[in-house]
Amino acid sequence: MRPFLFLGTRAEDDAADGEYDALLRCAGLDERDLRRVRLERAPLDEALGGPVDPADWSGIVLGGSPFNLSDPAEAKTATQHRVEAELRSLALRVIGADSPFLGACYGIGTLGSLRGGLVDRTYGEGVGAVDVRLSEAGVADPLLGVLPQRFDAFVGHKEAVTRLPEGAVRLAGSATCPVQAFRIGRHVYATQFHPELDVEGLVHRLTIYRDHGYTAPGGLDDALAAARAAKVSEPPRLLARFVELYAR
């Protein structure tokens, strides 16, 4: 089997390793079959020893990020500008080839800003569980359709899609964020919710990012309590299904 490629951007080792370990577990892969590149450390082509050819991989998975596409340009670090440029270039190649791609959370900013799409701060959601509902297209979709028509998932984002890219198909939404998942072409996906996060994973990540503005001042304890009380079980099936569909 050709390996899958996982792209991460989290600078904190605890957060980066926790995300990667969760993806391995949920997707049913080992490290040999899910190659990791931490983009915040080095340029993608440098890390892989040359340009990325989507055909060399069973599929590409992009994880979440502390970066936001909608951050003011002057507030972005040189690393963030580089990562955004690299991901935009890769996304355009992936879309052009209609190669398997799944972007979780940060993938919304990466894909949602292409082809006339708009990503801004209109539909940000605080950290916690939300009620996600599949659209009619989502129910019929080969990937999203593995999930129930209605399920709880963990979110936590400052930006979201306000206008879908031209030709994109909305697959899921929530009451506070109309676009929780969409597809471009047949095989390129983005989700706003985190398919890799369970209760333990969210509690761990919340603690790491306590000072990043995802919870209100002094609200960490409430967010942790709400996370521990949540019933989130379905989203990890999405990662196993992605592997099932595209491993080759």
TrEMBL record:
Cellular compartments per GO CC: cytosol
Alphabetical list of PROSITE patterns matching this protein: GATASE_TYPE_1 (PS51273)
Superkingdom of origin organism: Bacteria
Entry annotated with the keyword Ligase: yes
UniProt KW keywords: Ligase
One Pfam family this sequence matches: GATase
Domain Glutamine amidotransferase: 58-197
GO molecular function: GMP synthase (glutamine-hydrolyzing) activity
EC number(s) per entry: 6.3.5.2
Name of the protein this chain belongs to: GMP synthase (Glutamine-hydrolyzing)
